[in-house]
UniProtKB/TrEMBL annotation:
Keywords: Heme, Iron, Lyase, Metal-binding, Oxidoreductase, Peroxidase, Signal. The gene is efeB. Residues 1-27 are annotated as: Disordered. Residues 77-221 form the Dyp-type peroxidase N-terminal domain. Belongs to the DyP-type peroxidase family. This is Deferrochelatase. It is found in: Cell envelope. Binds 1 heme b (iron(II)-protoporphyrin IX) group non-covalently per subunit. Residues 232-414 form the Dyp-type peroxidase C-terminal domain.
Length: 427
């Protein structure tokens, strides 16, 4: 779990429209936004109060959380640079037997149409379940990617990027193959659990006979507005998780996270590569440690994320600082020391994880941890070198277990009138 923080940007609501939605509804979900987007004031990542004008009767204005909207069309797909969302679903599909390029193109066209409508706060294009009828977009994002096997099944092997080669084995891996990999990947995130489930159900129904579910993982984060001010998220170990994440304001952010417009293959222009890992946290063992011992494992204060060398969360870590006995105050095997980009040849990735809890084992051990999702322009220069170094001596390793793994090529955003992956499937 590299020591990098997630940018806390939030999407702003747009002016409302009032179409009659599919399925015969009198008022669409989007219409419920009223005029909040036209005159409202959203306090961004602070999740604070929102001023809004009254919506035309009979609609009622939504709260700030409900009215937030991410855009489907754009240079990049949604769900990469947006702030952490309260609820998430990660889903992988395999193309059905006999399904090929034609069926895959039709499926991505259906999925893109559904994603565009749901992210706008509208009903699904057909057979809407009404699960999210009373809610707005709630910052919903839906992101699509292709796994290694997709290209062989569609006859597009020559278009498979070299960056999509399988990840190497790591000594800490205890991978469940049934919950790893997949031909197609969908990431769903929202700040409302019903909105997220509604999108999950619509995507699953749209798959029809073209693809079958391979695995699904459900996650969560803190709800926006639950803290007094914006802050780095905490994981289930209680640590601030991700203090040194690249930020969109960094001069080299795009270079590190996105494939350049002139990159190869051409269909991946402005896209990114997502590494997905299900990381079990051995919480019973972790919670037996004193706070001081936990801080030594991480290399940062549990209370505020400050490095053990002093300062606050954003203070650069002094790796050479020693105590009165001549010992490094940040241990040599501390997680935060090992994952620093300047100690990994500049390797960096944008982390955008969800926590998960899937119940308890028979002995009461919690099946809980992190759905680790990281984004980079090339996983061989982002994720792999950092994970190799962690594999060789990270103090955190004895308290976590990597149980599932996948790598997906996520193409750039769809232009208006396009579907995601069209440049690959119709190129």
């Amino acid at each position: 779990m590299p020591d990098q923080s997630i940018p806390q940007t939030r999407t702003s609501p747009e002016a409302a429209e009032e179409p009659t939605s599919a399925g015969g509804r009198g008022v669409s979900r989007r219409a419920l936004l009223g005029t909040a987007g036209a005159t409202g004031l959203v306090l961004g990542a602070a999740g604070g109060a929102v001023g809004y004008a009254a919506a035309p009767a009979p609609a009622t204005p939504l709260s700030s959380v409900g009215s937030e909207r991410a855009m489907f069309h754009g240079k990049h797909q949604p769900g990469i640079t947006e702030g952490l969302q309260a609820r998430g679903h990660l889903v992988a599909f395999d193309l059905a037997a006999g399904a090929g390029r034609k069926e895959a193109a039709a499926l991505l066209r259906r999925w893109s149409t559904t994603a565009e409508r749901l992210m706008a706060g509208e009903a699904a294009p057909h057979d809407d379940t009404d699960v999210a009828r009373d809610a707005g977009p709630s910052a919903l994002t839906i992101t699509f990617g292709f796994g290694h096997g997709f290209f062989g099944r569609t006859g597009l092997e020559k278009q498979r990027p070299s960056a999509l080669d399988p990840l190497p084995d790591f000594s800490s891996d205890q991978l469940d193959k049934a919950r790893s990999d997949g031909d197609l990947w969908v990431q769903i995130g929202a700040n409302d659990a019903l909105v997220a489930f509604h999108a999950l159900r619509a995507i699953q129904k749209d798959a029809g006979g073209a693809a079958r579910l391979r695995w699904q993982m459900n996650g969560f984060n803190r709800t926006p507005g639950a803290t007094a001010h914006p802050m780095t998220a905490r994981n289930l170990m209680g640590q601030l998780d991700g203090t040194r994440n690249p930020k969109p304001t960094d001069s080299d952010f795009d270079q590190r996270i996105f494939v350049p417009a002139s990159g190869e293959p051409a269909w991946m222009a402005n896209g990114s590569y997502a590494v997905v890992r299900r990381i079990r946290m051995l919480l019973d063992d972790w919670e037996k440690l004193s706070v001081a011992a936990q801080e030594a494992v991480i290399g940062r204060r549990k209370s505020n994320g400050a490095p053990l060398s002093g300062g606050d969360e954003t203070t650069p870590m002094d790796l050479e600082k020693a105590d009165a006995k001549g010992q490094y105050v940040v241990p040599l095997n501390a997680h935060a020391r090992i994952t620093r980009p300047d100690k990994n040849g500049g390797a960096a990735m944008l982390r955008r994880p969800f926590s998960y809890h899937d119940g308890f084992e028979a002995d009461g051990t919690p099946d809980a941890g992190l759905l680790f999702v990281c984004w980079q322009a090339d996983p061989l220069r982002g994720f792999v070198p950092v994970q190799r170094k962690l594999d060789r001596g990270d103090a955190l390793s004895q308290f976590i277990r990597h149980e599932a793994s996948a790598l997906f090529a996520v193409p750039g955003g769809a232009a208006k009138g396009e579907y995601v992956g069209q440049r690959l499937l119709e190129g």
